[in-house]
Each structure stands twice: as C-alpha cells, then as structure tokens.
Amino acid sequence: MLKILGRVTSINVRKVTWAAAEMGVPCERTDWGLPLRDPKVPEFLALNPNGQVPVIIDDGFVLWESNAILLYLGEKYGRGGVLPADIQQRALVQQWLVWQATELGAYSGYPVHALIRKTPGYEDPARLADAIARWTRTMEILEAQVAKTGAFIAGDAFSVADIAIGLTVHRWFSVPIERVALPAVEDYYERVKARPAGAEVMTAATP
What we know:
Elements: E1 2-5, H1 11-23, E2 27-30, H2 42-45, E3 55-58, E4 61-64, H3 66-77, H4 87-104, H5 109-116, H6 125-149, H7 160-174, H8 183-193, H9 196-202
Parallel strand pairs: 1-2
Antiparallel strand pairs: 1-3, 3-4
C-alpha cells in the first residue's frame, strides 16, 4: 500500500492525498510535520534530508517534493487519465505543474501565513503587499489560460496539474484580501471543487 507521510494541514500533502483518491490508489497517511510530529529527526531525515512533508513510500521506493510525487503517481497509476499519454500534452501538464511550484504557489505563502495562520514573523506589511501583487499577476496569467481552454489548465481534461493549481486557487478565494475580478478562474474553481476528491481535501483543513 502507498504510504504518505505528512499532516493534512499541509497544502503539499493534500496534493498527494487528492491525487491518490483521484486515481483510486489505496493509501495510508501518517502524521508528520509540526506541530504534530517533528520531521527534523533522524528517522524522517533519512527519508527526506530537507525535513519537509510530504514523503511517499511505494513498495519501498521513497520520493519527496509534492509535484514530483504527482508526476510519479500519474505515470504509475494515471497514464492516459490524469497524466496524458500524448507526449506533447503531457509536457504541457508538466509545464503548468512546474509553474505552480515556482510562480503561482510561491506567492501565496506569505499571505496565508500572515492573514490566516497568523504565523510569527509574517507581520511585514510591505512584504505582504508585494506578495499579494505578485500573486495577483500570476492569477491573471491563470485567468487567461483557463479562459482559453474553457475547462482545465492544459486543455479539456483534468490532470495532475489541476490538483496543484486547484489547491492554490482554493487559497486565493480563502485568504481575506481584496481580489481582482477573475471570472474564468471562478468557473475553473467550481469545476475542480465539483470533483469529489477535490472537494474533500479543500475542506479538510485551512488553506
């Protein structure tokens, strides 16, 4: 059975649990990550030297980094479904998955910590304003893309990239900020929320 190590309050862990549910992969999740269980201990660092969640163990194979895990699960369990069989379409899914990690998701962290989690050290109003501005610009890129496809991020079909992006969009609509109008993103959000596995993880914990 696939083992997932990580707390459900982590957006990156929820990517993996959503993917497993979407593909019908039986899994067992174990809580790791503060405040529940410190991942900076030798036992966990032997699996991921970064001391971060999630980590998966699949028949003895260990993998970390949530978006890499999404691609792995897609290759093993979802090829032709949540990971396209066509090489060019698959490359587009990978492109948007990387974009989520390096752009869209990167700018969502500070507002979440500052405005929802109230994490100490996230009280700088200038940094908050800058993060919101950058996040807004990436959301406008997303708006243009889903307006073009009329469906999901890489085309007509739902993919692993929509798992990562869908959870970041969930953050966008959950954080108390002044938001620009993004009607195509609103429609996209409703589409990903309509998926039972997506709805479950989006309501499992705070963004």
